[in-house]
Amino acid sequence: MEIDVVELSRLQFAMTAMYHFLFVPLTLGLSIIVAIMETVYVMTNRPVWRQMTKFWGTLFGINFVLGVATGITMEFQFGMNWSYYSHYVGDIFGAPLAIEGLMGFFMEATFVGLFFFGWDKLSKRGHMVLTWLVAIGSNFSALWILIANGWMQNPVGTEFNPVSLRMEMTSFFEVVFNEVAQAKFVHTVSAGYVTASVFVLGVSAWYLLNDRHVALARRSIAIAAAFGLASALSVVVLGDESGYAATHSQKMKLAAIEGMWHTQPAPASFTAVGFPDMEARETHYAIHIPWMMGLIGTRSLTREIPGIAELVENAEARIKSGIIAYDALEKIRAAGGEADEAVTAQFEEHSADLGFAFLLKRYVDDPREATEKQIALASNDTVPTVWPLFWAFRLMVALGFGFIGVMAYFFYRANWRGMTFPRPALRLAVWMIPAPWIAAELGWFVAEFGRQPWTVDGVLPTVMSVSHLSVADLAITLAGFVTFYSVLFVIEMSLMLKYIRKGPYLDVPETEQWMAKHEHRLRTHDGNVPGATPAE
Asked: Which InterPro entries match (predicted)?
């Protein structure tokens, strides 16, 4: 199989996935923020909160629709570009995706329609409930997708059937409560909440800089800062949990992110900065923080974190064990599934390493015929390219701590400085709008690129997962996807900017009715109504 086909297939899926993830985090976060705003509206009955709900809900709707359009094509790619992957693990991977479509997406899509067209047909409380159902549906969809992705990172609750030559699920409970999947879910949705908070903060700051919709903008900043600060702190804490999970399930990814070429005495230090060198197998000019990596990765001072060199040696041993499993598998197939007990026992003993034997398929058709040199090459293939992982992770972390600082500052100004914000801070908020998307894309790059050379970690190499397509087929479809997704991105940006410039709905009749009641209360109480101002 031509390696160019593999690389082009990876490039096409990476492009579609990263385009799609431009829409996902904003959908996740805005759904919750809009639900919070409508809850405040129901509690206070103040029209400004209804205006806020409708305005940010409109931007949510635009983003949601285009996110759906970009997500549908990804699922088609599993059949088109990754047919062997779909055949090999479809019984496991397909289940959470089917549940997501039947439960999460249908729930989300149904209530989105009611959100936009039910304002005058439902009671305030009824409309608030369905807004929360939209938010729950959005996050529920993310849960099942991340369960599927988490299984690719840590394939638990499954076993290989030597007769059907496919992976089969043995425990749905283990797949759902996979520690990697759960850590990815809470980390990813928290990142989405930060993205939406920064977006709301930046757009509101732009309104204040232009002296437009001041009441809406100030209240939106207050909501975004409080929600964003809690979410940004959660991202850091839950990201730490992902690192701890990787210590158990993806040791090579963790070592590559850290640029840890050799096992260090416990507790390992964390490399703050440095320049990883793949050829020399060392990190030049490294600055270390003592003990930190050991505490993050093992929650102890005594357990070691294995380095890349030691993990390569372990991979070589597992490849040799996998060759034994492959040989037993071929004998079972030749016997039509009726092999003697000794062969079956031999396969069961080494079956956990079968995927490592498949790494040799890049160099030889029959892994049993591999030379020592080819085994060494395959074991070295288990090391992803270190420097992009090393720097992508550190830039993502730096942005994460930056979000905490910015959100804490605006939270302080909103709560203890009477919602007054210096113009330089407002300009920073506007310029910061793209930052959470950059952090989110870097996070997905670390998660997916760091898993290489595996499609399913330790089970199925990427080189075996692709369909039998030509380079021309992939080049043409890649160009088509780039064009299609670029058009959708331009449409998204145009619509978002149009409705941001247009500003919120005025809801004139309700506003006038509320103001009349408000003025009556002022006259009745001689103006002594706490916190009551015409701006409210």
From this structure: Cyt-d_ubiquinol_oxidase_su_1 (IPR002585)
